[in-house]
Amino acid sequence: MAEFSREQLATLVRGISLRQIRLASGMVLFAYLVSHFLNHALGNISMEALAIGVHWHILFWQFPPVGIVFYACCLVHTALGIWALYQRRQFHWKAIEPLQLVLGLSIPALIITHIVGVRIGQALYGHQKLYPQVFFAYWIVWPLKAWLMFAVITIAWVHGCIGLYFWLRMKAFFKTAAPFLLAVAVLIPTLAMLGLYQGGRNVVDNDSPEWRAENLVPDKVGTWAEQAVLSDIEDYFLIGYLGLIVVVLLAKGARTIHERRGGMVNLSYGNGRTVRVPKGLSVLEASLRNNVPHASVCGGRARCSTCRIRIIGDCSALPEPSQREAFVLSRVGTTDPSIRLACQLRPTTDLSFFQLFLPHATSAGSHASNPTRVGQERYLVSMFVDMRGSTKLAEKRLPFDTVFIVNRFLGAVSQAVIESGGRPNQFVGDGMLALFGLTTGRQDACRQSLKAAAMIAANVDELNQFLSHDLREPIRFGIGIHGGEVIVGDIGYRDHMVFTALGDAVNVAARLQDMTKSLACEAVISDEVRATAGLPADALPQQEVAIRGRNEPMIVRTVAEARALSALVAGEQVEAA
After folding, report:
1. Is the dihedral of CA 237, 67, 72, 170 positive or negative?
2. What is the 3-state secondary structure (H, E, C) of 334-374?
3. Helices 224-262/64-87 angle, 10° precision
4. b/e map of 434-473 (b: 16 or more CB within 10 Å)?
5. d(Cα 332, Cα 110) in Å, to the nearest integer?
6. Percent of the chain at pLDDT above 70?
7. Range with lowest mean pLDDT among 45-49, 438-442, 525-529
8. Confidence at residue 196, expressed as pLDDT on a 0 to 100 scale
9. How far apart (Å, rounded) are the C-alpha atoms in residues 369 and 288?
């Protein structure tokens, strides 16, 4: 057990990249923004509401453990932003990425006045600058700083939202949640700026000698000498920070000169196309710099494997995969040393390769509207339905009559699947694969599949009655249902792409459907689906069966008549309600 735990921990650590650290630290900072902006929004109520809100805000964020994490995240996120500026060699991926980087790097320079005046003043001299003092300084003494504050709010919020977008756009729920997230993203900063405006106007309206005597005392705003020290700290920080940015830009230029002097390498794409680039450039960066189409769903962040390439020839001279690259490659189950991630491989010698994914089929823009189209692992319930005796039926009928009957059967099955919330996926001869759970959770997907099986039985009964004058014996069918983690995405070639699911769960569902013949029943359901749907253990007969391709036997439930599932599912839903 200890060895297993250490192995799991090692795998987890190998999977952590600088981008994930940047995401984690950014989430902490974004949580601070949300808290601070909601505090600002209280200015729409009253100054008293602002005072109460800032009391709780400070109480939480200056609580020592929280404060340590927060300031650590500030330093780490800023350092990683500067490192990203140095590391990025070109900005041809998307306009939004350099915008995010520029906005993020501008934030420290824009907020230093506020940080020094409020937080450092409190730490050094015990100043108690709260909303009244800040509003007086920004609305009366330096009115232009009020506009600077609004600009900082907008810049910081847009930077954070871009980062969240890049993270969430690959999630299954993003398409559904996007309108609500957009509403929240617009509402919070708008309310915050309105709250600041209302608070500032309140201070301007109440400005008087008495108000100043109460709110501008030295223990709140400091003495002139203390303000001079804080101003020097602000100037030193700005000089140091801007100097650091200049050093990074000079380092980028020096690196470019060094790389060109260090030599160039030829990258051959296996289709006759060859580009010449400096050493140190990743294969994906080389492709984008030379306008060579290259699949990369995540934009070169090593969050997917769609930029994979296969090296042609000797691989021994290639740099070893980084921890992140090794993690991604192991995640997709490849140990072939000739398979590498183009976004991570930085060749130092001439290289020949070919891309494993077609660029037009997995472009970075295609996944934004539907991430499942380019490949995603998720839990689905697979249902295979097969029509019995279609071969015998075809032997005794005209071809068009056979096609008519099979189409009516598949229509009856598809109608039941759609009405139950599933999706007809593939039609193979007289059989069909249906998927449940593309837009629902596990329990709902399992219940939908059982409901669909019952509706299929009812629809086929109606079809048998309709065709009774033309059928020597009624149409029979078999259903296999199983749930599990599968890979969903577009499979095929060029214009012949089909959205489908791949994985053990799909194969097992097909095997269970085939078992309905030997077990003399209409449906065979895995016990996993029965349990997840919430059906009692004694609801259906249990059997232990051997599944081809699996080492261990599997517990399944047999259903003699599929229409009986309707009462079971309905009864369980009534009990749950």
Report:
1. negative
2. CCCCCEEECCCCCCCCCEEEEECCCCCCCCCCCCCCCHHHH
3. 40
4. bbbbbebebebbbbbbbbbbbbbbebbeebbeeeeeeeee
5. 43
6. 86
7. 438-442
8. 94
9. 23
Tokens for 138?
A: 């920004």
Distance (Å) of CA 2 to CA 5, 8, 175, 327, 387: 5, 10, 41, 21, 51
DSSP state of 318: S
Are 237 and 173 in contact by the 8 Å Cβ rule? The answer is no
CATH fold, domain 14-255, is 3 helical TM bundles of succinate and fumarate reductases (1.20.1300)
Q: Is the dihedral of CA 543, 546, 548, 554 positive or negative?
A: positive
- Three-state DSSP state, 432: strand
Q: What is the pLDDT of residues 112-142, one digit of tens each?
A: 988 998 889 888 988 888 899 999 988 998 8
State the pLDDT confidence band at 392, using cuts at 50, 70 and 90: low
Q: How far is residue 3's CA from residue 357's CA, in Å, rounded to a whole number?
A: 37
Structure tokens at 403: 């096609």
Closest residue by Cα to residue 389 from 424, 433, 452, 431: 431
Spatial distance between the Cα atoms of 569 and 444, rounded to a whole number of angstroms: 11
Give dist(CA 438, CA 381) in Å, integer.
Answer: 9
Q: Which of 415, 557, 373, 565 is nearest to 483 (CA)?
A: 557
Q: Would you mind telling me the total number of residues written for the chain in this entry? A: 577
Question: With 50 as the cut, is the pLDDT of residue 425 above it?
Answer: yes
Say yes or no: domain 265-355 is CATH 3.10.20.30. Answer: yes
Residue 472 has pLDDT above 80, yes or no: no
Q: List alpha helices for 42-95, DSSP H.
A: 47-61, 64-87
For residue 312, the SS3 value is coil
Query: What superfamily would CATH give domain 375-576?
Result: Nucleotide cyclase, GGDEF domain (3.30.70.1230)
12 pLDDT exceeds 60? no
Q: Integer distance in angstroms from the first to the last C-alpha of the chain?
A: 41
Q: How many C-alpha atoms does 316 have within 13 Å on its Cβ side?
A: 1
Q: Which residues pair with 378 in a beta bridge?
A: 486
Closest CA to 134 of 259, 76, 47: 47
- The helix/strand/coil state of 375 is coil
Q: Where are the domains of the chain?
A: 14-255, 265-355, 375-576
- Tell me: the pLDDT tens digits for 296-337? 767 677 777 778 898 988 888 888 888 888 888 887 777 788
* 61-74 confidence digits (pLDDT tens): 999 999 999 999 99
User: CA of 298: how far to CAs of 223, 295, 303, 439, in Å?
Assistant: 53, 9, 6, 22
Res. 9: pLDDT tops 90: no
Kindly report the pTM of this predicted structure: 0.57
What amino acid is encoded at 160 in this protein? G
As a whole number of angstroms, the distance between CA 150 and CA 111 comes to: 11
